[in-house]
Amino acid sequence: MWISMAILSAFFAGLTSILAKCGIKKTDSDVATALRTIVVLVFAWCMAFVAGSAGMVTNISTKSFFFLVLSGIATGASWLCYFKALSMGDVNKVVPIDKSSTILSVLLAMVLFQETGQLAAKLVGIVLLAAGTYLMIEQKGRSIKSKNSRWLVYAVLSAVFAALTSILGKVGISGVESNLGTAVRTGVVLLMAWGIVFLKGKQGQVKSVDKKELAFIALSGIATGASWLCYYNAIQNGIVSVVVPIDKMSILVTVLFSYVVLKEKLSKKSFAGLCLMAIGTLVMAFAG
Length: 288
Prior knowledge:
The chain has helices at about 1-25, 30-50, 60-90, 90-100, 100-110, 120-135, 150-170, 180-200, 210-235, 240-245, 250-260, 270-285. It is mainly alpha-helical.
């Protein structure tokens, strides 16, 4: 069951990036992040009520609550960086870097949770992921460190915070129903996202958000909520170093939709990189 949840998480996560990209063509990325977090929060608490775990919030241990809060902060930071990167760069460039958080997540899981089974296969998978990521983000004829590539910094930060999210979330939902854990940490993300909006004085932009883009932002929030619920159910019941790689297969869904919907072309080198990332992900998933 937890493998099925991980696969569904990947599908919804893949949709999230495309829907979000469509929602930030004119809308500021910080404002869009704050708005979509509202949708995710409502979605998460609805699922917690349906699961009958909403009333158990007072039973969460201090340790679990602490790590859920930390996981929420890491998630908020990851989102803010990720959507800033999406607003500046191509989806099929930003997403591979974000998904490379798998490398750090797996390494941390091996150290912290002693998930060292099939170590050689996992290390091979990490190398393939790293090589694939590099091929996908390298721009033909110019360095990826050009002045037009500020998105790269935000994408890398997004990946680092995303990796921390998985590890902190694993500890935080120990003994906590996954839907409830997701709802609690989403509340933290909401506070952080809106805090950033007010600190930057962007709250006035909320009223002027294009209705069409607002619809895409809302749909992105729903997709994110669905992905999270599946993801945290999977890592609660499964093996982190297997769940994370499967979840990152969402890159296949994202790249496909970026080609069909956003008309972003994929070079031969990028396609080779995508294949390496897919193979590396599968190697680590089966190694677990």
